């Protein structure tokens, strides 16, 4: 394991932070181990920082669970060239305190009032620095790239769910609640492999990126490590125009920058096999749709409980007890269980009869759905330099908690019901 304390804290530049962690980019002298890397550190609430960690916590201090999940699960499903380097590194208190002092002047005041670098930690996460480097980096959250098969859908939901993709339906529900959505963006276009349709998807992503001032959830643009915040004024995206060599022209507009942006990124999305691989896993792992999974769950429960109803939630009329909520009291899979799951998924999944799922495979299908959710919620980073080779990398492939299954089932019903009632469905084009 590398020891990051061999570098000076001044060689790390503050990049950004979220609720639980804070990220730095290596800017020191050339160093085989740390060139082009980012360091992710855990934060802790201010009031807890003076408490010492229990002996147990000190002994454990486990690596970030996303590191083990990536190495043991994700790397079996995606080619390594598409994944960031991700590993644990040693840190110590004195070094972290030095870094925390340097970070302080760059941190947003509202964050500083709440938390700080957890200086009690002995380990941190080192990852490929995908946005902090030179040039243009684009982050796209593509979402669901497939339409479900009708096999396990009800007669009410099948016409809607096989016509309109999940993202377009969900956007509709969010918009009726006043949330900002990427209007006009359909993931099936982005995943299509067709130049015209990818252009359409990028155009829609760009337009909602501009109209939401950069807060739309599906596109982010970084130039030289800075995240851009577009406005209606073209100068708000001057660094991007510079990257795309538009600044020499007297009057670049949002539209000329958009066209140049698409010309830079579109060829990379056409050439990469990332999107195809991602869509295959998303759809294979979601073989039953959440509706089929709910039904399998109810069947499995009824087979164990004579007289139980074949429904989840409220009993329907008779006195039979309903099945408990989907996934209730199921333990989160361990890494060993994930490995065993992958042995089956990789070798046998395509030969299994998913039209008639066996209740003995309930746990298998629950894990499969959980993993499909990871692939539905990840992001792509497109590094699109002016010259030289670009790269497309997949990030945020974290494991999801299994207790979300029930929420996903309910959300699915809510999304489809709202969409059915709205009438006039969008025809998404299947791939
Ligand atoms: Zn769609």
Automatic annotation (TrEMBL):
Q: Name one GO biological process term.
A: inositol phosphate biosynthetic process
One GO CC annotation: nucleus
Catalytic activity annotation: 1D-myo-inositol 1,3,4,5,6-pentakisphosphate + ATP = 1D-myo-inositol hexakisphosphate + ADP + H(+)
Give the GO molecular function terms.
ATP binding; inositol-1,3,4,5,6-pentakisphosphate 2-kinase activity
- Domain characteristics, as noted in the entry: The EXKPK motif is conserved in inositol-pentakisphosphate 2-kinases of both family 1 and 2.
Task of the protein: Phosphorylates Ins(1,3,4,5,6)P5 at position 2 to form Ins(1,2,3,4,5,6)P6 (InsP6 or phytate).
| Protein name according to UniProt | Inositol-pentakisphosphate 2-kinase
Q: Which organism is it from?
A: Phlebiopsis gigantea (strain 11061_1 CR5-6)
């Amino acid at each position: 394991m590398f020891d990051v304390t061999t570098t000076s804290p001044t060689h790390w530049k503050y990049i950004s932070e979220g609720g639980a962690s804070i990220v730095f980019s290596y800017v020191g002298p050339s160093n085989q181990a740390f060139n082009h890397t980012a360091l992710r550190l855990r934060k802790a609430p201010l009031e807890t920082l003076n408490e010492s960690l229990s002996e147990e916590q000190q002994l454990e201090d486990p690596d970030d669970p996303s590191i083990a999940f990536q190495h043991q699960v994700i790397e079996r499903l995606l080619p390594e060239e598409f994944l960031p380097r991700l590993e644990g590194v040693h840190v110590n208190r004195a070094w972290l305190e030095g870094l925390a002092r340097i970070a302080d002047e760059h941190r947003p005041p509202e964050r500083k009032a709440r938390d700080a670098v957890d200086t009690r930690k002995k380990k941190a996460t080192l990852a490929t620095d995908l946005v902090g480097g030179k040039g243009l980096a684009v982050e796209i959250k593509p979402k669901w790239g497939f339409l479900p098969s009708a096999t396990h859908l009800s007669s009410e939901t099948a016409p809607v769910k096989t016509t309109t993709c999940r993202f377009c339906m969900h956007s509709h529900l969010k918009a009726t609640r006043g949330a900002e959505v990427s209007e006009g963006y359909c993931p099936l276009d982005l995943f299509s492999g067709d130049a015209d349709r990818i252009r359409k998807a990028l155009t829609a992503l760009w337009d909602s990126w501009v109209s939401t001032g950069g807060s739309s959830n599906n596109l982010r643009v970084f130039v030289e490590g800075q995240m851009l915040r577009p406005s209606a004024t073209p100068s708000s995206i001057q660094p991007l125009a510079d990257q795309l060599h538009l600044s020499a022209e007297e009057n670049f507009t949002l539209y000329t920058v958009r066209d140049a942006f698409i010309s830079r990124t579109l060829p990379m999305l056409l050439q990469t096999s990332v999107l195809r691989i991602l869509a295959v896993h998303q759809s294979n792992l979601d073989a039953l749709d959440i509706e089929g999974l709910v039904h399998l769950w109810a069947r499995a429960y009824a087979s164990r409980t004579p007289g139980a109803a074949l429904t989840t939630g409220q009993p329907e009329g008779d006195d039979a007890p309903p099945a408990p909520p989907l996934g209730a009291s199921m333990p989160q899979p361990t890494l060993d269980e994930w490995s065993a799951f992958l042995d089956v998924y990789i070798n046998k999944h395509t030969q299994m009869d998913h039209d008639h799922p066996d209740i003995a495979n309930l746990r298998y299908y629950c894990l499969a759905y959980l993993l499909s959710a990871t692939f539905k919620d990840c992001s792509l980073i497109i590094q699109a330099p002016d010259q030289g080779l670009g790269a497309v990398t997949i990030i945020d492939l974290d494991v999801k908690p299994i207790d979300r299954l029930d929420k996903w089932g309910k959300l699915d019903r809510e999304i489809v019901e709202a969409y059915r009632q709205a009438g006039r469905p969008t025809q998404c084009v299947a791939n």
